[in-house]
Write a structure and sequence with these properties.
This protein has 127 residues and is mostly helical. It has a domain at 15-96. Helices cover 50% and strands 0% of the residues. It has eight helices and no strands.
């Protein structure tokens, strides 16, 4: 769902800082996650942006959302969480390692299993 629909008629924020102007903490988090999706691999920038959030619980909420959305980086992201609630949420995320498995199309063929083949003609039958 587009952030624009969530905001009604107000224009969609175009920067991380503009997300702070949103009234709802949930909308601010959704907005910030959207702004940080592209920089999630840049740890220093991500942490600078997270540290710019004045409310410590909103900061942790953002980090937990980023960890959920980026299983490959959730370990170091969760280490940045500062409060018990966020830490518990991160423990739940880290307790689900299957989320870190890349999609099948990125993994390629399974090296432990033979490729699936179509059954050939049975003996005594004609094609």
């Amino acid at each position: 769902m587009s952030l624009l629909l969530l905001l009604g008629c107000t224009p969609e924020p175009v920067s991380f800082a503009e997300c702070a102007a949103l009234v709802s903490p949930d909308l601010r988090t959704v907005c910030r996650v959207g702004q940080l999706d592209d920089v999630a691999r840049d740890r220093e920038l991500l942490l600078r942006q997270a540290d710019s959030i004045q409310d410590p619980l909103e900061r942790d909420m953002l980090l937990v959302e980023l960890a959920v959305g980026d299983p490959r980086n959730q370990g170091w992201i969760c280490k940045q969480v500062r409060h018990d609630y966020g830490a518990k949420k991160c423990e739940q995320v880290l307790g689900r390692p299957h989320l870190a498995t890349p999609p099948k199309e990125e993994r390629g063929p399974n090296p432990g299993k033979p490729p699936v083949t179509q059954p050939g003609p049975q003996m005594g039958t004609q094609p």
